[in-house]
Amino acid sequence: MSFWKICLFMLALGLPLEGNARLADVTCEDSLRLSHTLSKVMGAERQGTGLRDPETLVEIWITPSNGDWLIVQNYTNGTSCIVAIGEYWETTPQEPA
User: How many angstroms separate the CA atoms of 94 and 23, rounded?
Assistant: First the structure.
């Protein structure tokens, strides 16, 4: 699914926008619902997580079939927001230590 198809898909689901932000900037939803949509509907896989601060967990989601990627921020209040979307993700192999 291309970047623009993801944007249209999210609009079709009725996912709300925060303030006056564009869809490509911020889209927020209930954390469980967003995770389900990403994995079951879009075929994305969570590739990694990291703690941004005590109340925010950041995730990177990749759609292996086409290289689309998303960065999602999860908040302790149960809300998650897509804060970045892109294409052409490439996993870089790690060099042996």
Answer: 33
